[in-house]
Design a protein that fits this description.
Blueprint lengths: L2 E10 L4 H18 L1 E17 L2 E13 L3 H10 L4 E8 L17 H7 L1
Antiparallel strand pairs: 1-3, 1-4, 2-3
């Protein structure tokens, strides 16, 4: 039985953009081969609540996928061995969970624009 999973990874923001894009692409390819991959949401660069490996900022990325068995364990192992990842967490999503977080590059809804005016 396939279960819905969500993984959030925090990448080192001091790395070059092409390196970060490469690392995000590697995990996407891994998920596409081993799971029913849904989407990746890059939430952008954010300040960390506390320093991790002397870093104060990180690039947050959310991966949504469906998988069987110990697929989350394999993803965790893949992320744990990656030097570019500061922290990561995988959880089972609720079937009635809210829609995923929108990426920073998406425009604001029109209703929010009207409220500001």
């Amino acid at each position: 039985m396939k279960r819905p999973y969500e993984t959030v990874a925090i990448y080192d923001a001091t790395l070059p953009d092409d390196t970060i894009q490469s690392e995000i692409g590697k995990l996407e390819e891994f998920l596409k081969k081993n799971t029913e991959f849904e989407q990746t949401v890059v939430m952008g660069k954010k300040y960390l609540a506390y320093p991790i490996r002397k870093k104060k900022t990180g690039i947050f990325c959310q991966y949504l996928y469906n998988g069987e068995g110990d697929v989350a364990g394999k993803v965790e192992k893949h992320l744990k061995l990656n030097e570019a990842v500061l922290r990561h967490l995988s959880v089972v999503r609720s079937p009635n969970a809210a829609k995923p977080v929108k990426a920073l590059s998406e425009p604001a809804p029109a209703a929010a624009e009207k409220e500001r005016a």
